Amino acid sequence: MIQLNAMDNINQVREQLQQQFAELEDKKAILKSPELKKLFEGIRDIPSEKRSEYGQAVNQLKQDLNSWVEEFEKSQGDQQVQKLDPTAPWSVNVNANQRPELLPSTQGSIHPLNTEMAKICDIYQRMGFVVEDSREIDDDYHMFTSLNFPADHPARDDYDTFMTDEGLIAPAHTSTMQNRVLKKYADNLQKGEAIAVVIPDRVFRNEDLDATHEHTFYQIEGVYVGKGVNVGNLIATIQAYMSDYFGQELDTKLQPFYFPFTEPSFEFAVQRPDVLKKDDSEEQKWLELGGCGMIHPNVLREAGIDPEVYTGFAWGFGIERMVMLKNAIEDIRHFESANLKFLRQFS
Ligand code: DAH
Questions:
Q1: Given ligand 1 and candidates 134, 174, 261, which is best to mutate, with the most ligand atoms within 8 Å of its CB?
Q2: Predicted local distance difference test score (pLDDT) of residue 17
Q3: Are residues 326 and 290 in the same domain?
Q4: Are the C-beta atoms of residues 305 and 182 closer than 8 Å to each other?
């Protein structure tokens, strides 16, 4: 009769659990119920000839509990608060019938920055450069150390950006990729070919916002290394790109500057078209596009390239600023404004 009592007991527990389940807030907790655990423990007290039948019944109860939970979760579906999905085009915390309808895709268009970035990359690819993505989270080694920034050097302050508690960094410049691409393409040098890579991506900076400064913006980095490469090659390369992108020869200006990762270093500025000038001052005459220079021997060495044999140049330009110059856009903040009047002019 042990068996009958035991089987009755399982049914009793099932009823108890059913009641508990209805009242539980955290439905999953039912799977950990002490009553179920006791039934499993009871297996060893069942006579061996009845043990399998008993064991099956307890297992069946466990499976049933699982399906109660599953069914409950399914019925909750959209109403359940899920983890935030930053790519979702609506709040995930509303249920299906509260969601707005999506606009038909025929009403959308590619963002002007993406269109322009594709054009820019196309020019560099025709010039023989490979395109690589940067990353939106990086570490101190790639952002600073590999680029010859000594620890605690004040030059680090120019790249003030967001940092996680673990010390990861939202990169303030695409130069954060230099060490990686130099290593990745170092074989080219052995084959007698140059390293020629451009890296367009988003960067982040602690900036005072104004018409030409955003905290989040796009840059394109360029890296070229080979034998006998000099500043003349740097200027020629940038100018070839500029006249292709702008479709005309613009006045450009290189002025000495300081970056830890280049020597010599320059700031690169382009003549502002009249429509983008606030006044006739010398300051308004030029728009700084970014920096460039000959890659510092320490940066090459850090990537395993012998600076006695190879030299190279690098540059990093702001993409929004180039697009502003080309299209006479007076304020960088338009790009992120989601202002359809602005965006539709590019579709
Ligand atoms: N990373 C620099 C910045 O964002 C720009 C730059 C300067 C990039 C010189 C380079 C370079 O590759 O060689 O301010």
A1: 261
A2: 93
A3: yes
A4: yes
